[in-house]
Amino acid sequence: MGILNVTPDSFSDGGRFVGAQAAVDHARAMQEAGAAIIDVGGESSRPGATGVPEQEELDRVIPMLEALHGAVEVPLSVDTTKPGVMKAAAAAGAGLINDITALRSPGALEAARETGLPVCLMHMQGAPATMQDNPTYSDVLGEVTAFLRQRLDAAAAAGIPRSRLLVDPGFGFGKRDPHNARLLAGLPALTELGVPVLAGLSRKSLVGRVLGRELPDRLAGSVAAAALAAWHGASIIRAHDVAETLDAVNLMAYVRQHGGGDA
Ligand code: 7PJ
């Protein structure tokens, strides 16, 4: 899953058309590099970020989805928590809903069901504005697994078939570095929920902190983290650097498939 940010701090150089064209070019390049999905997000969820009003998110995301829909062949994912954006995005050609709040906004379960689209349910402790203040768990792997199981059940109860659901432990979303490490090493426990697991570690500050790397220098760490996630059973890796990440994922897939000892 290639990441396409359409927040004003990305691709913005004043003119909207220039921004849209740059985003379409970037999406095409990620598809060319092997991305199977393009994730489009109009609301920053970085630590400390506050939300954007629905109309502003619609204005950013919907024209972008419409432009991308005709320009790339791979499915488009919409990174949103808002029911209104989910419905408009589906109408504009989105093929997947990626919700970092796991459909907990009022009306989100119903909106997602109405679209008929698959949904990624992500775990987050707290909200982006404050989530990194002092995240606390007694058993992070157990608590995240239980949360995702509960959200899978809630989605199923709302009429979204389990075959349309994915889960994501939400690396960096209300987690300290040891929590992220436990979730990455413990990812096989999440695969036991019986739905595909998505993992996003690309360029995240956890990679930066562990390695002492600022943003431009997190590629190797991000690729290593993606490799571990793929090795431990993640089906989808959300990444900025698609070609490099895909090499790691394909290598892990090869070893998982052929490394059983029959050679
Ligand atoms: C994730 C996401 C993630 C899913 C972001 C960033 C922050 N969606 N959206 N999983 N992260 N499903 O890319 O650093 O990890 S935004």
Automatic annotation (TrEMBL):
GO-annotated molecular function: dihydropteroate synthase activity; metal ion binding
UniProt xrefs under Pfam families: Pterin_bind (PF00809)
Name of the gene encoding the protein in the UniProt record: folP
Superkingdom of origin: Bacteria
Cellular component GO terms held in the UniProt record: cytosol
Cofactors, names only: Mg(2+)
The protein, known as: dihydropteroate synthase
CDD domains attached to this UniProt entry: DHPS (cd00739)
GO biological process, one term: folic acid biosynthetic process
Coiled coil feature spans: none
